Protein backbone atom coordinates (compact mmCIF):
# COMPACT_ATOMS: atom_id res chain seq x y z
CA UNK A 1 0.00 0.00 0.00
CA UNK A 2 2.81 2.40 0.88
CA UNK A 3 4.69 1.69 -2.35
CA UNK A 4 1.68 2.27 -4.63
CA UNK A 5 0.79 5.39 -2.64
CA UNK A 6 4.26 6.76 -3.21
CA UNK A 7 4.05 5.99 -6.95
CA UNK A 8 0.69 7.75 -7.11
CA UNK A 9 2.12 10.70 -5.19
CA UNK A 10 5.07 10.83 -7.57
CA UNK A 11 2.88 10.85 -10.68
CA UNK A 12 0.38 13.39 -9.34
CA UNK A 13 3.12 15.56 -7.83
CA UNK A 14 5.05 15.57 -11.11
CA UNK A 15 1.90 16.57 -13.02
CA UNK A 16 1.25 19.44 -10.60
CA UNK A 17 4.87 20.57 -10.66
CA UNK A 18 5.09 20.43 -14.45
CA UNK A 19 1.83 22.36 -14.86
CA UNK A 20 2.80 25.13 -12.43
CA UNK A 21 6.34 25.28 -13.83
CA UNK A 22 4.94 25.75 -17.34
CA UNK A 23 2.51 28.41 -16.13
CA UNK A 24 5.32 30.28 -14.37
CA UNK A 25 7.49 30.18 -17.52
CA UNK A 26 4.60 31.28 -19.76
CA UNK A 27 3.09 34.00 -17.57
CA UNK A 28 5.82 35.07 -15.17
CA UNK A 29 3.52 34.38 -12.21
CA UNK A 30 5.56 32.73 -9.44
CA UNK A 31 3.16 29.82 -8.88
CA UNK A 32 5.83 27.12 -9.22
CA UNK A 33 8.10 29.11 -6.94
CA UNK A 34 5.27 29.16 -4.41
CA UNK A 35 4.82 25.39 -4.76
CA UNK A 36 8.41 24.60 -3.84
CA UNK A 37 9.03 27.56 -1.52
CA UNK A 38 10.31 26.66 1.96
CA UNK A 39 12.05 29.92 2.89
CA UNK A 40 9.77 30.45 5.88
CA UNK A 41 10.58 27.10 7.56
CA UNK A 42 13.73 27.60 9.67
CA UNK A 43 14.77 23.93 9.69
CA UNK A 44 14.73 23.52 5.89
CA UNK A 45 15.42 27.13 4.85
CA UNK A 46 18.90 26.03 3.75
CA UNK A 47 17.24 24.11 0.88
CA UNK A 48 16.36 27.38 -0.83
CA UNK A 49 18.26 27.76 -4.05
CA UNK A 50 18.77 24.02 -4.41
CA UNK A 51 16.12 22.95 -6.95
CA UNK A 52 16.60 19.26 -6.12
CA UNK A 53 15.96 19.75 -2.38
CA UNK A 54 13.04 22.11 -3.00
CA UNK A 55 11.41 19.62 -5.34
CA UNK A 56 12.17 16.74 -2.97
CA UNK A 57 10.24 18.53 -0.20
CA UNK A 58 7.31 18.95 -2.61
CA UNK A 59 7.40 15.22 -3.34
CA UNK A 60 7.53 14.33 0.37
CA UNK A 61 4.19 16.12 0.77
CA UNK A 62 2.81 14.50 -2.38
CA UNK A 63 3.96 11.02 -1.31
CA UNK A 64 2.20 11.53 2.02
CA UNK A 65 -1.01 12.49 0.24
CA UNK A 66 -0.68 9.49 -2.11
CA UNK A 67 -0.20 7.05 0.78
CA UNK A 68 -3.14 8.56 2.70
CA UNK A 69 -5.29 8.36 -0.44
CA UNK A 70 -4.55 4.66 -0.97
CA UNK A 71 -4.84 3.86 2.73
CA UNK A 72 -8.29 5.45 3.04
CA UNK A 73 -9.63 3.86 -0.15
CA UNK A 74 -8.39 0.43 0.92
CA UNK A 75 -9.49 0.86 4.54
CA UNK A 76 -13.01 1.89 3.54
CA UNK A 77 -13.10 -0.63 0.65
CA UNK A 78 -13.94 2.11 -1.88
CA UNK A 79 -11.40 1.22 -4.58
CA UNK A 80 -13.95 1.15 -7.43
CA UNK A 81 -16.45 3.59 -5.93
CA UNK A 82 -17.06 7.14 -7.16
CA UNK A 83 -15.98 8.02 -3.61
CA UNK A 84 -12.38 7.96 -4.83
CA UNK A 85 -13.13 11.14 -6.82
CA UNK A 86 -14.60 12.84 -3.75
CA UNK A 87 -11.63 11.81 -1.62
CA UNK A 88 -9.22 12.99 -4.30
CA UNK A 89 -11.07 16.31 -4.58
CA UNK A 90 -10.98 16.74 -0.80
CA UNK A 91 -7.25 16.01 -0.51
CA UNK A 92 -6.49 18.26 -3.49
CA UNK A 93 -8.59 21.06 -2.02
CA UNK A 94 -6.77 20.79 1.30
CA UNK A 95 -3.46 21.02 -0.58
CA UNK A 96 -4.75 23.95 -2.66
CA UNK A 97 -5.84 25.77 0.51
CA UNK A 98 -2.16 26.16 1.38
CA UNK A 99 -2.02 29.03 -1.14
CA UNK A 100 -2.97 31.63 1.46
CA UNK A 101 -0.59 30.62 4.27
CA UNK A 102 2.26 29.91 1.83
CA UNK A 103 1.81 33.34 0.26
CA UNK A 104 1.60 35.14 3.60
CA UNK A 105 4.59 33.32 5.12
CA UNK A 106 6.86 33.50 2.06
CA UNK A 107 9.99 35.61 2.40
CA UNK A 108 10.77 35.70 -1.33
CA UNK A 109 8.33 37.34 -3.76
CA UNK A 110 5.28 35.21 -4.58
CA UNK A 111 1.89 36.10 -6.06
CA UNK A 112 -0.43 38.10 -3.82
CA UNK A 113 -3.28 36.40 -1.99
CA UNK A 114 -5.62 38.58 -4.06
CA UNK A 115 -4.04 37.73 -7.44
CA UNK A 116 -7.03 36.07 -9.11
CA UNK A 117 -5.01 34.81 -12.06
CA UNK A 118 -2.40 33.14 -9.82
CA UNK A 119 -5.09 31.67 -7.56
CA UNK A 120 -6.90 30.32 -10.64
CA UNK A 121 -3.76 28.62 -11.93
CA UNK A 122 -3.03 27.26 -8.44
CA UNK A 123 -6.54 25.79 -8.19
CA UNK A 124 -6.38 24.41 -11.75
CA UNK A 125 -3.04 22.78 -10.94
CA UNK A 126 -4.45 21.15 -7.84
CA UNK A 127 -7.50 19.96 -9.80
CA UNK A 128 -5.06 18.32 -12.22
CA UNK A 129 -3.28 16.85 -9.20
CA UNK A 130 -6.56 15.32 -8.01
CA UNK A 131 -7.31 13.85 -11.42
CA UNK A 132 -3.84 12.31 -11.54
CA UNK A 133 -4.35 10.84 -8.06
CA UNK A 134 -7.43 8.96 -9.26
CA UNK A 135 -6.09 8.20 -12.73
CA UNK A 136 -2.79 6.79 -11.55
CA UNK A 137 -4.56 4.86 -8.78
CA UNK A 138 -6.97 3.31 -11.29
CA UNK A 139 -4.16 2.53 -13.71
CA UNK A 140 -1.76 1.04 -11.19
CA UNK A 141 -4.36 -0.86 -9.20
CA UNK A 142 -6.28 -1.93 -12.29
CA UNK A 143 -3.58 -3.11 -14.64
CA UNK A 144 0.14 -2.87 -14.15
CA UNK A 145 0.24 -3.15 -10.38
CA UNK A 146 -2.21 -6.06 -10.19
CA UNK A 147 -0.34 -8.01 -12.89
CA UNK A 148 2.92 -7.45 -11.07
CA UNK A 149 1.49 -8.61 -7.74
CA UNK A 150 -0.29 -11.60 -9.34
CA UNK A 151 2.91 -12.51 -11.17
CA UNK A 152 4.79 -12.61 -7.88
CA UNK A 153 2.07 -14.76 -6.30
CA UNK A 154 2.21 -17.22 -9.20
CA UNK A 155 6.00 -17.38 -8.97
CA UNK A 156 5.73 -18.24 -5.28
CA UNK A 157 3.23 -21.07 -5.88
Topology:
Blueprint: H1 2-27, H2 31-36, H3 51-75, H4 83-96, H5 99-105, H6 116-156
Describe the structure.
- The protein is mainly α.
- It has one domain (about 1-155).
- The protein contains 6 helices and no strands.
Key attributes of the depicted protein:
single chain; 157 residues; 6 helices; 76% helix
Provide the β-strand percentage band: under 5%
Rg, nearest Å: 17 Å
Count every helix, treating DSSP H or I runs of 4 or more residues as helices: 6
How would you spell out the order of helices and strands? Answer: HHHHHH
The count of strands amounts to 0
Mean pLDDT: 88
| Residue windows where pLDDT falls under 50 for at least 5 positions | none
Number of domains: 1
Largest sheet descriptor: none
Instruction: Tell me, briefly, the overall form.
Output: globular
Category from helices, strands and their pairing: mainly alpha
- Helical percent range? over 70%
Distance between the termini: 22 Å
Keywords: Membrane, Transmembrane, Transmembrane helix
Transmembrane segments: 7-23, 55-73, 85-107, 119-140
Amino acid sequence: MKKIGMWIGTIAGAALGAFLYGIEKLTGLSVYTLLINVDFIPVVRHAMGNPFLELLLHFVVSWTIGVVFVYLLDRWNKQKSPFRFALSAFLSLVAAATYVPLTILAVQPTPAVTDIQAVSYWLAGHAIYGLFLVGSYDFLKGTAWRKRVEGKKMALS
